Structure formats: structure tokens, C-alpha cells
């Protein structure tokens, strides 16, 4: 009796879905409908047994929510069912201020994986890196965790500590990090300045609502200061808003050019995002820097400028997060986040799980002071004394000289500028 009752409810729900599908033009063949009804009948049987006989009493809402979470998480790493609390958590992200560790995560090969730590956050300062696999949060192993499970576990009251265990594959070892949670404030443009010889440097840490407008203002200021060439640093930029990435890209290419396209299951529903901005800086030589922490919007910008040969891409291969998630609110305050399409560059290259390969491969070098000077202890003492005596502001301004990738970008742009001058 109970099975028939639950079956009737679920079949009524399905009938409503079929009706909606017909309205939208997605009607199934009768044989497919019959098969679906059979599967729903099976679901209703299991639902009834669990509701009636499970050792712990469960509400219908808990069981339905659990089933929906399983359905969505089984699709891919980024599709999710969000209960009302989780949906509200997601809304906090878009405001650019929240309590936590400061990392962007995804799921790869069944493991919670760090896309990138956000610069100047607790995770960044602790030394977490792109590609680190989070295998344990506190005392709980993360096997079977969804993204929202991990987010909920890592967030907490600012000032409180949490220990996470990561697997760093390049070093083939487990590492514990005890991190103090903090309010995470995201600043989309971290730096904008002239480095040397008219070569300007802009670091974009994320693509947010006002990024393009702020960038435009920074570019105007740099132009007034004598900018001749530009380095756009997208390293460890996890992406952000698609519209913001498009608005940034259009400042470097001609009007009415494809910036990126999205393609879903229906090939006829390809969507192209085109530039709509006529920028006077369209001919300025540029280098875009990427690494394994560059994802989504960063890959859109880098791929676009690479396809149009508008900029030289330098660094290491990007992360490869090029799928589009559509957020669909539901009537009870919950929502689903569903992967509906994937990104393609203007030349038709797929970004998802492939990433963007740089034109010039330059690995990041970490200079270890002890290794550099270990053969001459007297020299070491002199160097360290000199470093300690330097003015702090001066060290900050000259800090780029310790970054081999920035130095490589400067050398490339110097060569381009020499070539351009010789052509005149």
C-alpha cells in the first residue's frame, strides 16, 4: 500500500515534468517515457522501504534532498543540488566578502582539488598550491565529499583554526596545514604600475562586476605615465564572471569580434559573445601570463588574445576549467547548479579539461637563498645584511625582479618594441 502511495506521488510529479517538457519542445518518445516510468517506480519502492524501515527516522524532505544531491553530483564535478542553506552560502561568494580560507576548489578524479589559493588570504599565506588534493578536513576524510560539503566544512567563524591534509603529487607526500580562518575580501586588480622602459604591469586576481571599468581607468592612467607595452598577469586567477571576462577582453581586440562561445547539448544553440568596445590601445604590445592556477575567465581572456595573435601567452599550462554552470532557483528556496555548456575560444578550441598552452613555456623558479650562497658563508652574510638594510618600499617596488616569469615577459616585450622601432 505504502509503495503504491509513493509511486503515485512520484508519477504525478513526473507527469507534470513531461507536460512542461512538451511545452518547451523537448517531448520524449513513448518508449523512453515508459522506461522512465519504470525507473521512477523503482525509485518509489526504495524511497518507501527507507522511509519505513531505515534504522533512523528520516523525513521525506531529507530523502528527496539526498536523492537530488546524488543525481546532480553524479553528472560532473560542478553540477550541484543546493538546499536553501547551501544556496545562501553560494550567494555570499558573489558579494566578494566571506569567512574562510581563501581557496577555489573543484573535484578531479574524485578528490577535492585546489584550483588556486586566492592571493593574500590565509590559504595563500599558509603555502597551499594549485593542484593540491585535499584528502582530509579536520578529522574527516574527504572521500565522497561534494564541493559544497568541503566549502561548508572549511568555512567558519573568523579567527578559528582548522587543519587540512593535502596530497601534493609533485612531492608525493601528505602535508598538514593548520590555518586560521579570516574574512576573505577579494580585490580584482591587485597591481597596476610601470615596471621599466615603458613596460606596464597589471595583475588581475579575479573577474568581478566592476573589473573591466576599473581596468579601463588603470590603463588610461598608465598611458598618461608613458606605457609602451603591457604585461597582464592572470596567474592564480580562478575566473569569476563570464561577462566581466568578456568586457576585459574587448578592450584589447577589434569591435564585433568573437571573444568566446558556449556550446551545449543542442548544437543549434551555440552562443557567441562578441566585443562591443572600440579601444585606442588595440595595438599596444602585450604579454599575458598564466599558470596552472589560471582558470575559467582567465582562460577565456588568454585563449581569445592568443587566437587573434593579440598577445603572447607566457608561463605554464592553465587549469582547464571551461564549463558553464547555470544556477536555477527552485520554489522552496533551494537551487540547482547545472553544467549546461562548455567554452570554446574564437578559433574553436575547447578549454574544458584541456587548458590553454602558452606560446612561451616558462616554469616558475623558486630561488632558495641557502642554495644560492652555501659555498661562500661570508658572502651570504654580506648579502643578508644588505637585504635587511634596504628600504621596505624599495623592496616592494623591485620585487618583480625576483620573479623569473615577469622578467621573461619584460624581455619578450623589449624585443617586440625594438622590432617595432626598427620597422619605422
UniProtKB/TrEMBL annotation:
Biological process terms in GO annotation: proteolysis; signal transduction
Database matches in PROSITE patterns: PDZ (PS50106)
InterPro entries linked: ClpP/crotonase-like_dom_sf (IPR029045), CtpA/B_N (IPR055210), PDZ (IPR001478), PDZ_6 (IPR041489), PDZ_sf (IPR036034), Peptidase_S41A (IPR004447), Tail-specific_protease (IPR005151)
Domain of life per record: Bacteria
Gene Ontology cellular-component annotations: outer membrane-bounded periplasmic space
UniProt keyword annotations, A-Z: Hydrolase, Protease, Serine protease
GO molecular function: endopeptidase activity; serine-type peptidase activity
Domain PDZ: 87-155
Entry's family note: Belongs to the peptidase S41A family.
Protein's recorded name: Peptidase S41
Species of the source: Candidatus Ghiorseimicrobium undicola
